[in-house]
Structure formats: C-alpha cells, structure tokens
What we know:
The protein is an alpha+beta fold. It folds into 2 domains: 11-56 and 159-217, FAD/NAD(P)-binding domain, CATH 3.50.50; 57-155, 2-Layer Sandwich (D-Amino Acid Oxidase, Chain A, domain 2), CATH 3.30.9.10. 16% of the residues lie in helices and 31% in strands. It has 4 helices and 12 strands, in the order ββββαβββββαβββαα. The strands form 3 sheets. Strands 5, 6, 7, 8, 9 and 10 form a 6-stranded antiparallel beta sheet that branches. The chain is elongated, with a radius of gyration of 20 Å. The protein starts with 10 loop residues before the first strand and ends in a 10-residue tail after the last helix. It comes from Kouleothrix aurantiaca. It holds the Pfam family DAO. This is Sarcosine oxidase. Residues 1-196 form the FAD dependent oxidoreductase domain.
Amino acid sequence: RGATIRANTPVRAITPVPDGAEVHTDAGTFHARRVVVTSGAWSNQVLREAGISLPLTVTQEQVTYFQPRQLRDFAPERFPIWIWHGGARDCFYGFPIHGEVAIKAGQDVGGDVVTADTRPFEVNPRSRADLQRFMDTYIPGGAGPELYTKTCLYTLTPDRDFIIDTLPEHPQIAVAIGAGHAFQFASLIGQILSQLALEGEAAYPLDTFQLDRPALTDPNFPASFMV
Length: 227
C-alpha cells in the first residue's frame, strides 16, 4: 500500500482515542487506527499522554573505526564478529572490515548517562582511551590508526531486555525498545511489530519483553546492563 515518510518531523505526543490514536507532530496531527512506537530515548516523552512512564536509562555510547595495518587479516572470512567480557563492567565488541576500509570496535555501556535532547555528541576521551588500551592489549594489529569515532544513544531497560508489547490500556499502540542490542534482530522485531499492528497479536511468545514484567514495574528492581 506504500507509505508517506515525514522526515525531520518531531513527534510531540501520541494520544489514544476511541478509534485509534492521534500522533501530534510539528507538521500537524495525524490519526491512525494503530500506531507502532519505536522512539528509543524519546519513548517516555511521546507516550506520556498514553499514561506510560518507563524506568529507562539513556547513555551516550561511541564506536571507533580503526584502519588495520594488514587489511586482509581483518576480512570477514578471517576475522569474526566478537564480544569480550572481562569483568562486571568491561565489555568490548567489534566487527570485521565491512563498508569502510576499517574495523569497527566499541565498549558496551561505557558511556555517560544523558538525555535525548541534551546529549553532547562530542567523543568522550575517557571512553576512547579505554577502547584504545583494550585494542592495544588484545588486538594490536587492528588498533589503528583511527579513521573516525562517532556517538550514538542506548535506551536501557533495568534488565537490558527488549520491550515489545502493546500498551495494556490501549492495545492499538505497540511499542518496541531495543535496549542497545536490537539491530541484529531488526528483521524479526519488525515482523512482530507488523503482526501486532495488523493482527493485534504476535506469532511469537513475548512474555520476556512485556511491559508488566518486574524489571519495569518494581521500583526496587536492581538494574544490570551487562548482557
């Protein structure tokens, strides 16, 4: 049926109405029978009028692209995607050469707590130095020179699991939050959200990712962001 993309159009709120929902934007208000919300760090802001307030932590993370000395050693067939856990808070990850003439590496949940609207965008020198020390120690052949470093946002739930559900009081509104590790599951999450939007239910069990789980309802739930 096609779609209309409203680029650079901030959504200010989503309001449930008897026959669907209204999406309030800077370009006007749009009505839909069903709405899928994947607004990450802005989720609480846009869902406030639907009575939703989630215990989310937003952090600014960063990744660095390194140019290896020997490119062939870091081709996908010779250098796999990797994740390294070294302690309670030390987790680094990386990818082979793909797209750029460089490998990509970063620290998981190594950044500072921010808000979506006030994040600084600048590279954090402390996090950059931590990553460089790790690369120099464990992957020295891929430790530089740096091509560039860029930042992104994580929107973290206390248990680091996804949120994939419809709102309890307003099932016409579906919401998904990836908790900083959903990209590799994007095709499946997209399929589930399309099922929720078109059929009202998913063909997959979603108990672990629902809004009524203790991590989201118990204010004393101990947050743990390592996966």
